[in-house]
Please model this.
Amino acid sequence: MPTIVDKPVLRTTFQPVVNPGLKYFTWPVLTVPFLWALAYFGLNHDPLLDFQRYSSLIFVGFGAAILANISAVGGGLIFIPAMLLVFHLPAIVSLKVAIGTQAVGMTSGALAWLRTGTISLRPLRYALPGLLIGSSISSLLIHPNALLIKSLFGPVSIVVGLATIHSLLKSDKSANIQKEFVPLHLFVISIIGGLITGWISIGEGELIAAYLMLFCGYSASAGVGIGVVLLAINSIYLAFLHSFFLSGIPWNIAAFTILGAVYGARLAPFICQRIGSGSIKVIFATIAIADGLLFIIQSIAHPN
Model:
C-alpha cells in the first residue's frame, strides 16, 4: 500500500533528460523562418531572382557563424573570401554583407553565450569605449576601400590562425590561474580591434579573447564568450554606421547569410561544450591560415 505515494517522484526525474541543445534552438526554429520570409518577400523588389542567385549563402552563413561563435573571430573570415572569390562580389559589398550578417548572427550567438553563465561582463566597461572609438575612426575617418580590405585580410587571417596555434601550445597550467586584466590594456586593444573590424569585419572579438586567455589566464569559454559579446556590439554599431552614413547595406544579399548565421550562432555554444576546445582551435587555425594564404595569392594574381 505505501508504494503508491512514490509515483510523483518519477515526474521530476524527467526534467534533466531534456536535450541541452534545445535551449539554444527553440526560438529560432519556431520563429525565425516565419519572420525571415515575411521580411524578405515583403521588402525585396525581386525576391525570386535574388533567391536563385544567393540562396547558397545560407550554408556559408551557417558554417561561418559556428566558427565565429566558438572562436570570437568574426564571420567575415569566411564571408569575405566566399563572396569575393566564389560569388565575385566587390570588396566593399562583401564587407557590408559581412558586417550586416554579424550584427544579427553574433548577437544571436552572444545571447546564447550569456545563457551558459560562463561570462563575466566586467571587461565590457573598459573595452566598449575603445571599441566605439576604433570603429568610428575606421568607418568615418579612414574609409574602408577595396585595396585596404584586400591588403589587410590575408595577413590578419594568418596572424589569427598562428595566435590560435600559440594558445594551443601554451601550457594549460597557466590558464588555471586567472589574473586581473589591466583596464588600459583592454582599452587600447579594443581601439585596435575596432579599427581592424571596421576595415575587414574581423579583429575585435579575437584580440580581446586572445588577451584574456593568453595574458590573464581566462578559460577558453570565458575569453571566447566575452569576445563574442564584444564583436556582436561592434557589428551592430558598424551596421548602424554603414546604414545611415556609408551608403547602406545590401540586405537583399545579407538576408541569406543572416538566415544561416542565426542557426549557426545559436548552435555554437552547444558544440563548444560538447567538443574539446583543442579540436575546435585546430580546425579554426587551419581554416584561418589557409584562408589567409588563399586570399594573399588571389590578391597578388588579381590585384583589382
Remarks:
- Residues 54-301 form one domain.
